[in-house]
Specification:
218 residues, alpha/beta, Rossmann fold, 2 domains, 16% strand, binds adenosine monophosphate
Amino acid sequence: MGKDLIILGAPGAGKGTLAAGLCPALQIKHISTGDLLREVIASGSALGQELNGYVSSGALVPDELIGRMIKDRLGAEDCKAGVLLDGFPRTIPQAEMLEEILAGLQRPLGAVFYLSVDLERVIRRLVSRVSCQQCGRPYHLVNLPPKASGVCDDCGGQLIQREDDKEETIRKRYATFMEKTRPLIAFYQAKKLLVEVAASDNPQDALNFVLQQPGVQQ
Ligand code: AMP
């Protein structure tokens, strides 16, 4: 199994939390397109303002824009040992772009971990989700609280709630997932790369399951 992996799942499925445990264990780089986009948005540039229009409404950013961003990122030095893609690809055209990028880099895709979750669980999770403004580490105020209220355990940064984690936008993002991203399950199943990870409120369960998959630790 190659070292480039994908985590696929609806918003709130636990992709970021799984990535936070998996990347240090496998010594691969965590690449979250949502985080990359939020960085550009925070810069306040004209591109950032354009991107914010999509992200704040729960819509997807156009494929070409994301494709260019990922191509630049995957070619960087710190991605050579392998990456865990979180939030990308989100559409069939993006998955095709990824195949082309990885073929150009002569890197086979190792596996696609699909975190299945239903809408009610997503809403329950996301309305209580906060993350560190500085390092991005995710927390859940009930299931995975920080040691000190409002402060990141790792870096001491301030914990904030994402603007798109409001119930109405969560429903829109979930519907976008069902329409645009769900077809990727069959796409990767056909390539024999899909591994389904059952939803659980204990993040350690998903991490243990993934770490036990054949080839993941090599
Ligand atoms: P996430 O942090 O993965 O939940 O992403 C937050 C938002 O960023 C999404 O709701 C989309 O608006 C946008 N986004 C992130 N990744 C992608 C992608 N691969 N393609 C299009 N839009 C994306």
